[in-house]
């Protein structure tokens, strides 16, 4: 699977295993997700472009490195994507945040948009889309479709778990969008859930059913 990065750092894998456990509480699941998303953010932002800047230290003038271009935008696919945001913002606190609301029609498994709110001047920004699960891939592909109309400089997609079906869908629609995940699971079941997976990420983050 080209353009897919599986983040195999031991801490990422350890925390993911704890999250998969069915008896993990809402509190621990949410905390682990925040910790894991912080760790993943380091890998996802590894190749961000830098520019030279002149600064004054307490002792002298020097040339330092800073991220080049407009501020990064983190785009959360509601509602489960919000569980990723705090951890990512720990690494890039200056990032802007956008939201897109998509729900999956239970009959067709196709995404239906109900909310879209982005920062101003999205053109030439770098975007990181966050959603814990890349299952069918339909919501991810629809989200990227929408974002590309805003002419960003780049788009990356980050998830906890990915199914082969979801990767194939997103790559077919947007082969230029890199995918970062902590694991590629076996398959989807008849209801579009990832197996072995970790259940419904949104319900487990927010303690709902």
Plain-language structure description:
Helix content is 32%, strand content 31%. By secondary structure, it is of the alpha/beta class. Strands 1, 4, 5, 6, 7, 8, 9 and 10 form an eight-stranded mixed β-sheet that branches. A two-stranded antiparallel ribbon has the order 2-3. Helix 3 (82-91) links the parallel strand 4 and strand 5. Helix 1 runs antiparallel to helix 2, helix 2 crosses helix 3 (82-91) and helix 4 packs parallel to helix 5 (164-173). The longest helix has 19 residues, at 26-44. The protein starts with a strand and ends with a helix. The mean pLDDT is 91.
Give the helices and strands as they follow along the chain. EHHEEEHEEEEHEHEEEH
Number of strands: 12
Cα-based radius of gyration, to the nearest Å = 18 Å
Roughly what is the average pLDDT, rounded to an integer? 91
Termini separation: 34 Å
Helix content percent band: 25-40%
Query: Which structural class best describes the helix and strand composition?
Result: alpha/beta
Task: Give the count of helical stretches.
Answer: 6
Give a quick account of the main beta sheet: strands, pairing sense, barrel closure: 8 strands, mixed
Q: Could you list the spans in which at least 5 consecutive residues all have pLDDT below 50? A: none
Shape: globular
Strand percent estimate: 25-35%
């Amino acid at each position: 699977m080209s353009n897919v990065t599986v983040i195999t750092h031991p801490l990422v894998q350890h925390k993911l295993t704890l999250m998969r456990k069915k008896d993990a509480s809402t509190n621990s699941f949410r905390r682990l997700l925040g910790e894991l998303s912080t760790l993943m953010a380091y890998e996802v932002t590894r190749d961000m472009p830098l520019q030279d800047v002149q600064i004054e230290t307490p002792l002298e003038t020097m040339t330092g490195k800073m991220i080049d271009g407009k501020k990064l935008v983190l785009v959360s696919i509601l509602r489960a994507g919000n569980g990723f945001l705090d951890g990512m913002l720990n690494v890039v606190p200056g990032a802007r945040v956008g939201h897109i609301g998509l729900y999956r029609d239970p009959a067709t498994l196709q995404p239906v948009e109900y909310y879209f709110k982005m920062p101003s001047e999205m053109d030439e920004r770098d975007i990181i889309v966050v959603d814990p699960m890349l299952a069918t891939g339909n919501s991810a592909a629809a989200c990227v479709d929408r974002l590309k109309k805003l002419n960003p400089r780049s788009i990356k997609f980050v998830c906890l778990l990915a199914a082969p079906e979801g990767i194939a869908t997103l790559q077919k629609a947007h082969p230029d969008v890199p995918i970062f995940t902590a694991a590629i699971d076996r398959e989807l079941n008849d209801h579009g859930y990832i197996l072995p997976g970790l259940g419904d990420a949104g319900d487990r983050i927010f303690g709902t059913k």
